[in-house]
Amino acid sequence: MRIPAAFLCVVVLLTSSVGWMKATVAEDVWKVFDTQSQSSLRGISAISKDVAWACGSKSTIVQTIDGGKSWLKHALPIGKDIEIRSIHGWDSNNAIVATAGQPALILKTTDRGVTWKTTYENTSPQAFFDGLKFWNNRSGIAFSDPVDGGLLVVTTSDGGDSWKAIDPNLIPKIDSGEAGFAASNSSLHVFGNQLAWIGLGGGSDGPSRIFRTNNAGLQWTTHSVSSIARGVSSGIFSIAFENELKGIAVGGDYNKLTDGTQNIAITDDGGLSWRSPLTNRPRGFRSCVVCRWNESKSVWVAVGPSGCDWSKDGEKWDAFSEIGFHVLAVAPDQSLWAAGSSGRVGQYKTVDPTVQ
Fold it and tell me: Is pLDDT of 250 > 90?
């Protein structure tokens, strides 16, 4: 979903004037890196504590292979002002991205960003990729804002070298104005080999909705999420799962960055039903949530322009940083990366936000 430029300006002002003025917290828990970029970074793929890819506005793709000490900026052959909000990296050489807006493309590199090959293109002016994820090295899925009145969903079985659109008749109909939010490449989440969830927002007021598939996109069901309100600027922005059953969705209203009402939902049955947490919620609008593992226990982390929150079980949330980010990613080694406005990328200093 296209996010108005006015909102992006508010986010930049809030994260620079609030997050950075309270720098003691950021210095204590985040290692913040200078990527030599001023772009708004909304996609990040964490490979390890040393290797990460990030993407954002102005056709920006940056990468580190030394834990953030240095950053390489990659050039795409599609112009200088394209939004790149979805990214998946397999390693330091292989990665794939999707554009948010026109041209609507998926591009892949196998030589650490020296060259990029277009592997999918949609010429509809309505196409706008909101998310791209992979179940494994070969199988992946991406979705776009509605094209001709329905969500565009494409899948790959060859590592992103080619893509096939799912028959739109197999995808549930959307409501007027309903779409995904491309704020963090996480309104789409995949788990296992075939499970996927798409969180939506926008349109008229009412409960948000999640589309769910258990067969890699061939069939979908819809599920109402009453604890996250839907509206023109509100809805579900991010989904994460701990296992096949326990999941959390976050969001809210991006015009009300510090409003902590109707910004989170929890499922205990794989996304068939959703409820509010038992106690307190994250402190405001949250654009991304992830689940990490440390010594056989899970820790949930959520971020937004107004700060970062954590929870042991999703039922009670506490603040652990005032610095604002748009997106999080957890590497297989459980290192936690974050990215946000003004080219900001951070890595959490400890394994567990409960340890400070």
Answer: yes
